[in-house]
Amino acid sequence: MRLLVLGGSQFVGRAVAAEALARGWDVTAFNRGRSGLDLPGVTAIRGDRWDRSDLERLAAAGPWDAVVDSSGYVPRNVLEVAEILEPSVRRFLFISTLSVYEGWPVQPLTEDSPTLPCPPDADETFGTDTENGPSQYGYQKSGCEAAVLQVYGTERSALLRAGVVLGPHEYVGRLPWWLGRIARGGRVLAPGDPARSIQPIDVRDIADFAVDAAASGVEGAFNLTGSGEATFGDFLDACAEVTGAASELVWTPDEVLLEHGVGQWSELPLWRTSPGTWDVDSTKARAAGLVNRPIADTVRDAWKWMRDAAFEVNDRSAEIGIAPEKEQRILDR
């Protein structure tokens, strides 16, 4: 198998490239060479996905059996990428998001749930952000899906709608923040009910599914989430175990956190009170081969990566986490 990864040097794209290489595939990564390092064994082609001449040069380096697009965010750009690559790539797999659904995070979701309207040639200004509802990011990704379908049709494409993705090499900073906070020890503000079911998915499980899908030719849209068997308590207990810190989890009711103005999803990562946040049906993906590793394995391997690679705070991860002073005020209430 010959696989092209658009991106390929960070998080999801990196994991896809790693899994394909492990299977002995011929892997090409197309990126600017500015974020992360290409994996050994990958054929790197430098270029900008917004530069038509770079895309034409990329297409001339084909053919490939499939492409996994892990770096597409604007519909008109994904449309151009798909059109230029179509003669050189048999199948197109797009890394999308649950945010494409009109009802996320309020309503339970399946692949048949309505998606946000966005034309396939929309530019980066399309869509709006709504409090606890649709986001511009979701509109944009929905338009990207439409672009892929316009060029490749359903029979030559797969739309992989990922939920919250955790694991080694995470740059968003959700799991690294929890690990870092618990590693500091002391009383730790833990959100809501420890029995609350959560559905984060390991980045390597997404990569496994994507590579399987590229090989098998499955088509259509798939929700990629955890099974829902893990709880928030399981998650934070695993963080405490791997760090070995002398910490105490202080579980605090949602109402108290809301009264103190704690930012959901950001100040206490993964905490959100909307009922649909962790109510996503991924039965279709499981029937097509999705397998989830235990949350404890994800936490353990992320902690090992953080220690070995010295996780660095970036612009995205700097927005994650509650200030120590604010956390202490709530603990002392």
Automatic annotation (TrEMBL):
Gene Ontology molecular functions: UDP-glucose 4-epimerase activity
Occurrences of domain NAD-dependent epimerase/dehydratase (ranges): 4-217
EC number per UniProt: 5.1.3.2
A Pfam short name: Epimerase
Pathway: Carbohydrate metabolism; galactose metabolism
An individual GO BP term: galactose metabolic process
InterPro entries: Epimerase_deHydtase, NAD(P)-bd_dom_sf
Keywords: Carbohydrate metabolism, Galactose metabolism, Isomerase, NAD
Reaction(s) this enzyme catalyzes, per UniProt: UDP-alpha-D-glucose = UDP-alpha-D-galactose
Co-factor(s): NAD(+)
GO CC terms: cytosol
Family under the similarity heading: Belongs to the NAD(P)-dependent epimerase/dehydratase family.
Name of the protein in question: UDP-glucose 4-epimerase
Organism for this UniProt entry: Glycomyces artemisiae
